[in-house]
Amino acid sequence: MASDPRTTRVRPRYARSDPRGLFPHVTGLPEPPYNRLAHFWRPIIDMTDSDVAPSRLRMIRPVAAWLAEPESGEQLWFARINVTGLRRQVIRHAGLDAYDCRVPKDLAEPLRTPAWETLVRAIDRFDRLDPYVRTLVLFQLAQLSFCELGTRLAGEVRPDGDPVRDRYVYQVARLHARLPGSRPVALRLFEQLATSSKDPLLALLSCFQGISHAIRKENDLDLARRFERHGQAVRDLPDDWHTYLVLSRFHRALALLRLNERRFGEMRAEVRAALDFHERLRPEVSGEVDTMVADENRRILLESQINAAVRARGDESAAQVRALCAEIIALDPYCVLVRLAVGDGHAAIGEYAEAARWYERAGELGTGAGAIGWFRAGQCHEFLGDRGAAINAYGRCLELDASAVEPRAYLTAARTAEG
To answer: In angstroms, rounded to a whole number, what is the distance separating the alpha carbons of residues 209 and 45?
Structure first.
């Protein structure tokens, strides 16, 4: 029988002996296309699309097409960008040392795809690009986890009221938000955009970003509340589905704020508002890219609902949590973060065997997030009394991140007990 979820909680993260993590090099693995991990991470390796890549990486392909032919002027509405260092984690765990590079131009020419080569050429003439094309370049650098390069290329920026340039400044701020030492710069730019942009959607997007980063990274509720007030002051929103999209994101950020304020009833009201706006946008969406944007929004909302059930379980039934897990995995089945969220959902309702299965499936995708998956799986196996499975899970965690403290301690104790 599973342990009581009220008394047995899965710790989300392990402590690290090195705050940067230690991601071992794996050697002797085949090159693409015969490399298992490469199939799931191919867009971040060389910008080749893959139908088994997570949705946030599949966004690289359409943006690469816009960068090759920028005359279309397509706007970026994608919400998620990758964490700094993700590509290097993938390269190490996939054993693809030949693809390791600190900046795109350092990748050997024989390994460059046409999309990669287009990006390199754009970086070389970055100072001569117009703000729209610069925005595309910075988005691609963020998705490839070259955020430091992106901020160096951009230099000092500030909004000036021109809608196209202000969207470029917004993208610069997003890159700064991914770099720990640069988050104050990001928050300052987001607030400048929130209070000065002539584009009301951009102003509201900046409030959404400000709330999220003030809470998740800085733990500054007062700053988050200030962004909330800026957002409530935005007027004259256009009458199209992009407005519903941005309002859905803004209310999702407010739900995060209410959760951290421990105002759980209001948190759920904000989640409902975010869901309502999402449902209003869906009938107006058409085309592949717009569908990707809408699906991304739904996927993030589902993750928010699962997180709410994990952190502040309300009246959600076990069946409702299972339904959320089933829907999100159907939307983005190969995303390590989605698999973690599904594991979290099952753990929240005490289904530790099912939670362990999804945590292990997250671990199979490698990276630091995969190491966290194995760590959580190990705890579930402990709760279920399966010592052998726990040893396996903690060992797999250390194979992905050798800095993990608790898994190492567990394996040390297991070896002592056997001796």
So the answer is: 27
**Residue corresponding to tokens 């584009």:** 199
pLDDT at 6: 43
Task: Give Cα 169 to chain centroid, integer Å.
Answer: 21
**pLDDT at residue 72 in the model:** 87
The 10 Å Cβ neighbour count of residue 212 is 20
Which residue's entry shows tokens 């069946």?
319
**57/173 Cα distance (integer angstroms):** 20
Residue 217 confidence (pLDDT): 80
CA distance 251 to 282: 17
384 to 5, 30, 43, 342, 351: CA distances (angstroms) = 12, 37, 38, 18, 10
pLDDT for res 2: 46
316: left (phi over 0), alpha (psi -120 to 50) or beta: beta
Residues of the chain with pLDDT under 50: 1-3, 5-6
Give yes or no for a contact between 407 and 382, defined as CB atoms under 8 angstroms apart.
no
**How far is 266 from 39, CA to CA, in rounded Å?**
42
Quote the pLDDT of residue 131: 97
Query: Quick count: other Cβ atoms within 10 Å of Cβ 385?
Result: 10
Pick the closest to residue 277 from 305, 325, 319, 240 (CA basis): 240
pLDDT tens for 41-53 read 999 999 999 999 9
User: Among all chains, which residue has been given the structure tokens 């196209």?
Assistant: 164
pLDDT tens digits along 163-203: 999 999 999 999 999 998 999 999 999 999 999 999 999 99
Task: Answer whether 149's CB lies under 8 Å from 88's CB.
Answer: no
Spell out the residues 6+ positions from residue 270 whose beta carbon is closer than 8 angstroms to its own. 251, 252, 254, 255, 258
Q: Is 116 helix (H, G, I), strand (E, B) or coil?
A: helix
User: Across-strand partners of 16?
Assistant: 404
**How many CA atoms are closer than 13 Å to the CA of 331, on its beta-carbon side?**
24
Between the alpha carbon of residue 346 and those of residues 191, 226, 275, 300, 309, the distances in Å are 38, 35, 22, 18, 10
Q: What is the pLDDT of residue 123?
A: 98
Question: What pLDDT score was predicted for residue 1?
Answer: 40
